[in-house]
Amino acid sequence: MSTVSHEVAVKDVENWLSYKRIRPKKIEKYEDFKATLVEAVEDGALVLNEDYSWTHNLSFPIESGDTPINGFKYKPRVTVEEVGQKLKNAGTDADSRLLAYSAALAGVPISVLAKMDTIDSNISNAVAAFFM
After folding, report:
1. Angle, helix 31-43 to helix 6-19, in steps of 10 degrees
2. Residue 45's Cα: distance from chain center in Å?
3. What 8-state DSSP symbol labels residue 72?
4. N or C end of the chain: smaller count of CB under 10 Å?
5. Could you count the other beta carbons within 10 Å of the beta carbon of residue 131?
6. 3-state SS assignment for residue 46
7. Which one, of 105, 102, 113, 119, lies nearest residue 59 by Cα?
8. pLDDT for 25-75, tens place per residue?
9. Is the alpha carbon torsion for 60, 68, 72, 132 positive or negative?
10. Is residue 53 a contact partner of residue 71, using CB atoms and an 8 Å limit?
11. Strand arrangement, sheet containing 69-74
12. Which residue ranges make up each domain of the chain?
């Protein structure tokens, strides 16, 4: 059951894309990623914050020592330097690059995000795709 209406979810995603100044052709090219973001907002897995960062509430928390990781906050902007630092530790395939971008956005090591369930990773990848 959705926690956010489809209309509100679409508006949130479109406001975020507008804030990021994503060009219409890129949005069209990444329509599947946009749909993933909308669905995640509808389900409450992704929440757009006032500063245009995203809060990602994980469906499957990551076990990390005594305290599980229940979610991440993805920055609204990321620098080339931040991404470059993560890319140094990533492979050259598309999945590795998306993971590196996600890690830069979340401000966590790639090894932490690599432990995400694929359901959660799909949402993270959809956010990261619009930064590439």
Report:
1. 130
2. 11
3. E
4. N
5. 17
6. strand
7. 119
8. 999 999 999 999 999 999 999 999 999 999 999 999 998 778 899 999 999
9. negative
10. no
11. 46-48, 54-62, 69-74
12. 6-61+71-129
Give the model confidence (pLDDT) of 93-114 as tens digits.
888 899 999 999 999 999 999 9
Encoded amino acid at 19, one letter: Y
What pTM does this model have? 0.91
Q: Which amino acid is at 41?
A: V
Q: Which residue has the tokens 């330097």?
A: 81
**What gap in Å lies between CA 3 and CA 44, rounded to an integer?**
6
Amino acid symbol at 75: K
Cβ(15)–Cβ(8) below 8 Å: no
Residue type, 118: T
Q: How many CB atoms lie within 10 A of CB 27?
A: 16
